[in-house]
Amino acid sequence: MSAKKATSALISVFHKDGLEPIVRKFKELGITIYSTGGTEKFINDLGVDVVPVEEVTSYPSILGGRVKTLHPKVFGGILNRQDNESDVAQLEEFEIPQLDIVIVDLYPFEKTVASGASEQDIIEKIDIGGISLIRAAAKNYKDVLCVSSMEDYGDLLEIISNNNGNTTLEDRKRFASKAFNVSSHYDTAIFNYFNKDHQQAVLKISETKGQVLRYGENPHQKGFFFGDFEAMFTKLHGKELSYNNLLDVDAAVLLMNEFKKKIRLLRF
């Protein structure tokens, strides 16, 4: 069956905005919540029961918070295949709880770099546990729903509210796609930060904000524009732009540039 009813969730997030309705819905649905550190305190302060991850792992958060969730009892709960008899048996043998939903966001690496913070502060914003949880949960989308951004909280809340805590395979795969987008963008930002000093002959670009065009090269195709079109041009009226409209704009701008070059030559 592709539909699965969630009975447990791991929540470990940097940003708490928008989390409260989800936590309260989990409580209403009887979903057991596991958490760490500041997120655990946030949930407790809402009056909602939460199981500290250290009770599962028998290890406290160590190394100044660098190691909290990196443990077989956490990743086993995420990566086990629920239709695999050996996996199910090992969860029982090692007393590993099944984790059906994983809600994680990442330390704000790009914002920390942009703020002009010290190198040490920037290094500490390279997330290890969070990125590992995201990759593990997204990999096992057949059994686990991975929520990797606070922007998806509303979508999650709607799904579990409308379906009594059930998620479909389509839901889980769609969230997995979003999760790998988050993880690849994050790693691209980290690589580009380090590559400023070493200048490897590598180009890595991750552009996550695109404008959907009216259609692509042909009416049945999709088209997207990445960049700030409004910063370059002012649209006065007319329909939404298509891919071909942008090609025409590009050709017109190049043509105008040719006239400018010829005018300069005539002046000399």
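Second entry:
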Amino acid sequence: MAQFAVIGLGRFGVTVAETLTQKGAEVIAIDNDEKKVEEVRSFVTNPICLDSTDEQALKAANINNVDAVILAIGENKEVSILTAAILRKIGVGRIIAKVDSVLHARILKIMGVQKTIFPEQYVGREIANLLVSQHIFTYMEISKDHSLVEITVPTFFLGKSLKELEIRNIYNIGIIAIKSSKPTVDEDGNNIVKEETNVIPSADDVLNEGDKILVVGKKVDIDKLIKMSEKKIRKK
């Protein structure tokens, strides 16, 4: 079973701890505020109240063998940096840290922290991408250059199979799911619309009006497809 340690139980840390627990992982939750520790006691594996800048206390918490430590102290740079240094010293292999500035991220990376996350920046970019186009329903960054995006099917894709469209060759993206809304009747005789998701569609699957597609690829290629779709709609 996967095991993680979350240090810092603010909103970000609690969300990470709760989600990891729901996914079946064991979670060690650490904070120096007893009240915050008590709030997660009901769902984490091992809630611990300690000062993360205390090397001996962190050693005693036995977190050097977890799959990863999520350092969720973003607002207090001094504590975050010192905690990261101690984690490296006691032999923690993988550290993922929340940061609140580019400088903070740079310092932690120099210290050997493998991944830094700037939640506000991430959410800001996601919201901006959702706002700039009426065709985007879900936007998720996979890496600096790649995204996973749910969009309406472009009009010039309608009635064609994935094989005919040659998505990968022409547009340099991949379609990993097709969402279709179909009218049906429930057990009580009410007319409802049921959404069906075709995951990993075959080359013969056809795209129809009202469908949404989940595409993955480089941001620049996905943006190009969305702009092409909007341009064709404006011309009508």
